[in-house]
Design a protein that fits this description.
alpha/beta; globular; oxidoreductase; single chain; Protocatechuate 4,5-dioxygenase, Chain B
Length: 255
């Protein structure tokens, strides 16, 4: 069994820099041997939930600019799986969730950057799934619920995003995490650990500094998808927590 996880994927520089988070990701990857990986990425937004469906090697997408040339030379040659994509689609459809399949799109940096640091050489098929940031948290959770039980099949579900992701608020001179970002994550941790779902679903009104931490929810909502896909009988575990440039959070959780 491999529990679903949420990971903070931060800057694309994570692919070439060694940090506390990349050390965590590498260590995590050494501990698990998934049969397949299903990753919900904040960098693929669609109105209808869309699943990558291919048996080929994915193109590596460089959906960023202004970074060192070294980043644009990295390839992450993971393969997909039409069979598993079809199984996922069936699960969603059974729960009344509309779904599309996509045979063309490559892996964006919300997928290949954390996967590169977990598994420097791809070890299994990867199925990438889009997010709709405009759905409420309870609906994001329901999307995750449709995948419950895949952990028993050694399929690793990853929500890839960030709990605090406000690029306008980055503090490039910071040597310690910004207090407002820490307060938001503290609130999240307290409520995640006791699975206080109604409060978590209402984070925008109840969490301190919610508007600063989540100016737009595309990076935040993969947390709810990963949460929903886990077994509610298990207590969630905080598996990593660190920050860069003041407020960029790498909080990671196992469900």
């Amino acid at each position: 069994m491999i529990s679903p996880i949420f990971v903070g994927h931060g800057s694309p520089m994570m692919a070439i820099q060694d940090t506390a988070c990349t050390e965590f990701l590498l260590d995590y990857g050494k501990k698990v041997s998934p049969k397949a990986i299903v990753i919900f990425t904040a960098h693929w937004e669609t109105e209808v939930l869309t699943i990558s469906s291919t048996d080929d090697v994915y193109e590596t997408i460089y959906d960023f600019g202004g970074f060192p040339k070294e980043l644009f030379q990295i390839k992450y040659p993971a393969k997909g799986s039409k069979a598993i994509a079809g199984q996922l689609a069936e699960r969603f459809q059974t729960k009344g969730i509309q779904v599309n399949l996509d045979a063309q799109r490559g892996l964006d940096h919300g997928s290949w950057v954390p996967l590169l640091r977990m598994f420097p050489t791809p070890i299994c098929p990867v199925i990438q799934v889009s997010v709709n940031p405009y759905l409420p948290p309870a609906e994001q959770y329901r999307i995750g619920e449709a995948l419950r039980g895949l952990d028993q099949e050694d399929i690793l579900i990853i929500g890839s995003g960030a709990t605090v992701h406000n690029l306008r608020a980055l503090n490039w001179e910071a040597t310690e995490p910004d207090a407002w970002a820490v307060a938001f994550d503290d609130w999240l941790v307290q409520n995640i650990e006791v699975q206080n779902l109604n409060v978590l679903f209402n984070y925008a009104a109840e969490a301190p500094n919610a508007r600063m931490a989540v100016p737009r929810p595309e990076h935040f909502i993969p947390l709810y998808i990963a949460m929903g896909s886990g077994d509610p009988a298990r207590t969630p575990q905080i598996i990593h927590r660190s920050y860069e440039v003041g407020s960029l959070s790498y909080l990671s959780v196992s469900f």
